[in-house]
């Protein structure tokens, strides 16, 4: 016979066991869920919402302001309509919401209907100076900003005094010189000063910039932003070759780019630098998102077991769980990374991971613990089509991760994905592709980001964690200056299928950990996000329209930022000249660096009050000594 005390003890034990079982099931279900469920009830802008190039009717003028006080610009582009320079300019105008007009010949200034705040961008390498030299002077005399995105050949400049004077060139020392390195002066791009010069032999692998250029020297009244570096024992610093400069003679503002920088993503930051250096302030939208994507991990297919056993003394799944994952968690936590894992279910036609997905809940738990998300790697071998992969993955995930909302995917071939998207993936297209809102790719598309269909966006990887170089560093600075967006790729495909010693995890991990903790970490200016959060911010940035106004105050000035269409959760970059924010309403801000602020817009109208900076003003010689060894260390 059971006593009441024993009965109560048995009942209590059974209750605890039942509770733990139920709790573990709840925990399992919650860990198998993704935070992406929050996006289901949220309005996501589509391609039809992208800014069209025309000011929105919903932009309301603040009291006391009129359109003549607006800081908006009108861009006139003179150059090849099928060139990379034009593509860069067009992309920049779309991001900054700047109306753009493309012309073959610069018209007379007096013939323009709208003469307010004109910015002329010339692809000088592709246009005969006779198309603009006689008319452009009247533009700059009336306050227009002129940017030579590329320069004419040196002999054309040498033979045209008007052009040479317009550029502020006093001497052409040589038609071609090879410099030792390139220096970017402080204040030009977000991120401060940079010196791209090989000091130690082992650093030569990083130098991939074009170091050959015409040697121009500019007049007094010019300001240099990029300069070529030479041996100081042979040449005076004031005589170093100019790469990017501004010449201001009288009331003209002329910028010149000596090289092909505007043909790459570096051109986006350079254009924003020109905008900033030609006005009282610069204010434009940014994404405010930095993503880190781990490709093909976990890989559940186990297609390379013999090699994995030989290299790691473990099965593929065990090596990923016991060796790879702790390293990934370590690099993520120590560098504040919010990871997106692209799960691989198999490259090959005969891969069958359906019985090897038992660890999916374990990985989802680890991913959620890092506040990250899981996506789908759509890589496949040549003997397997994307459609076949989508069908097999549907069968896999409906059983093993039915409650997880996959909104992101990776592809090596965006065009293949777009074709499959257009085809509808057969009768079950909504099942096979349903839920994917954004894809990422490894930079084989010229776009940074944009729509590939009405509802799906593309995000390109901007950096490879294993491949630092000076040109990639320059692009990182440019993108931090222009759009506040970056996407770091950590590709684990070769570590799972190692073909050579360099592919092995220990060597690969040491390389990426070193790069992420040093080179790439110094650009962690913006918020770390998942791909889904980055997607949302990109959509909002592409769809918003805005205008800003400047008004004088007793102790400084205020900037009024008006954002149309109720875009009340977006970000802007504000760059000032020796002024700092004293207060703000309608949003908040954080200081990125001196004279640069990240503005978080929380209402349709934001007022920013500026006062003179309290920083001590010091004269800095632009050719001052640099402790190169100290900078290197």
- CATH fold-level topology of the largest domain: TIM Barrel
The level 1 CATH classification of the largest domain is Alpha Beta
| Helix share, percent | 25-40%
Number of strand elements: 28
Overall pLDDT score: 86
Largest sheet: 9 strands, mixed
Helix/strand-derived class?
A: alpha/beta
State the domain count.
3
Radius of gyration: 28 Å
Which shape, going by the Cα principal axes?
Answer: globular
Instruction: Give the spatial strand order of the biggest sheet.
Output: 2-1-3-4-11-10-9-6-7
How many DSSP H or I helices?
Answer: 17
- What distance separates the N and C termini? 80 Å
Could you list the spans in which at least 5 consecutive residues all have pLDDT below 50? 15-32, 616-633
CATH superfamily of the largest domain: Glycoside hydrolase/deacetylase
- Proportion of β residues? 25-35%
CATH architecture of the largest domain: Alpha-Beta Barrel
Secondary-structure blueprint:
Blueprint: H1 4-31, E1 74-78, H2 84-96, E2 100-103, E3 118-123, H3 133-141, E4 145-150, H4 154-158, H5 161-167, E5 169-178, E6 181-184, E7 194-197, E8 212-218, E9 222-229, E10 242-247, E11 253-257, H6 266-277, E12 281-286, E13 289-299, H7 305-312, H8 316-334, E14 339-344, H9 360-369, E15 373-377, H10 386-400, E16 408-410, H11 414-423, H12 429-433, E17 438-441, E18 449-451, E19 457-460, E20 463-464, H13 470-482, E21 485-491, H14 493-496, H15 505-517, H16 531-543, E22 546-553, E23 556-563, E24 570-576, E25 579-585, E26 587-593, E27 596-601, E28 605-612, H17 628-632
Parallel strand pairs: 1-2, 1-3, 3-4, 4-11, 13-14, 13-21, 14-15, 15-16, 16-17, 17-19, 20-21
Antiparallel strand pairs: 5-8, 6-7, 6-9, 9-10, 10-11, 12-24, 18-19, 22-23, 23-28, 24-27, 25-28, 26-27
Helix pairs in contact: 2-6, 6-13, 8-15
């Amino acid at each position: 016979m059971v006593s009441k005390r024993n009965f109560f003890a048995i009942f209590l034990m059974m209750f605890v066991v039942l509770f733990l079982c139920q709790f573990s099931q709840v925990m399992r279900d919650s860990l198998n869920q993704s935070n992406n469920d929050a996006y289901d009830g949220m309005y996501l802008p589509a391609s039809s919402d992208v800014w069209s190039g025309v000011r929105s009717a919903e932009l309301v003028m603040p009291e006391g302001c009129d359109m003549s006080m607006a800081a908006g610009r009108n861009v006139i582009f003179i150059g090849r309509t099928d060139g990379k320079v034009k593509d860069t300019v067009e992309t920049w105008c779309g991001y900054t919401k700047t109306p753009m007009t493309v012309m073959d010949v610069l018209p007379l200034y007096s013939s323009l209907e709208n003469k307010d705040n004109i910015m002329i961008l010339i692809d000088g390498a592709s246009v005969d100076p006779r198309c603009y030299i006689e008319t452009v002077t009247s533009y700059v005399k009336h306050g227009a900003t002129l940017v030579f995105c590329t320069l004419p050949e040196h002999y054309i400049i040498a033979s045209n005094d008007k052009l040479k004077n317009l550029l502020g060139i006093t001497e052409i020392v040589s038609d071609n010189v090879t410099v030792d390195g390139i220096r970017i002066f402080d204040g030009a791009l977000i991120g401060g000063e940079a010196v791209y010069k090989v000091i130690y032999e082992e650093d030569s692998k990083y130098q991939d910039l074009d170091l050959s250029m015409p040697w121009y020297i500019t007049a007094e009244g010019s300001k240099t932003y990029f300069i070529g570096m030479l041996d100081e024992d042979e040449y005076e610093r004031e005589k170093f070759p100019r790469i990017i400069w501004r010449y201001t003679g009288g009331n003209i503002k002329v910028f010149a780019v000596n090289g092909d920088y505007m043909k790459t993503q570096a051109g986006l930051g350079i254009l924003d630098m020109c905008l900033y250096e030609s006005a009282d302030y610069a204010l434009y939208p940014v994404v405010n998102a930095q993503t880190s994507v781990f490709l093909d991990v976990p890989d559940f297919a186990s297609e390379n077991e013999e090699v994995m056993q030989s290299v790691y003394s473990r099965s593929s799944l065990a090596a990923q769980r016991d060796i790879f994952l702790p390293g990934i968690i370590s690099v993520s936590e120590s560098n504040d990374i919010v990871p997106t894992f692209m799960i691989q279910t198999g490259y090959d036609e005969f891969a069958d991971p359906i019985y090897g997905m038992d660890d999916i809940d374990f990985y989802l738990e680890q991913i959620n613990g890092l506040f990250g998300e899981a996506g789908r790697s759509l890589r496949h071998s040549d003997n397997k089509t994307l459609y076949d992969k989508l069908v097999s993955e549907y069968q896999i995930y409906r059983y093993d991760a039915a409650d997880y909302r996959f909104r992101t995917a990776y592809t090596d071939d965006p065009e293949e994905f777009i074709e499959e998207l257009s085809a509808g993936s057969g009768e079950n297209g909504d099942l096979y592709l349903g839920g994917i809102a954004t894809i990422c790719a490894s930079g084989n598309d010229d776009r940074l980001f944009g729509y590939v269909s009405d509802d799906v966006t593309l995000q390109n990887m901007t950096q490879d964690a294993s491949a630092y170089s000076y040109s990639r560093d320059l692009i990182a600075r440019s993108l931090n200056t222009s759009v506040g967006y970056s996407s770091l790729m950590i590709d684990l495909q070769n570590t799972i299928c190692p073909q050579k010693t360099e592919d092995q995890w220990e060597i690969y991990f040491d390389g990426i950990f070193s790069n992420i903790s040093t080179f790439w970490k110094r650009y962690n200016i913006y918020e770390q996000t998942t791909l889904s959060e980055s997607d949302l911010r990109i959509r909002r940035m592409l769809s918003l329209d805005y205008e800003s106004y400047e008004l004088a105050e007793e102790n400084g000035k205020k900037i009024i930022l008006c954002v149309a269409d109720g875009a009340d959760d977006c970000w802007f970059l504000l760059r000032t000249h020796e002024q700092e924010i004293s207060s703000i309403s309608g949003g908040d801000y954080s200081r990125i660096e001196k004279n640069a602020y990240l503005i978080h817009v929380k209402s349709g109208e934001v007022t920013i009050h500026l006062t003179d900076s309290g920083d001590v003003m010091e004269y800095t010689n632009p050719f001052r000594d640099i402790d190169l060894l100290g900078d290197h260390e």
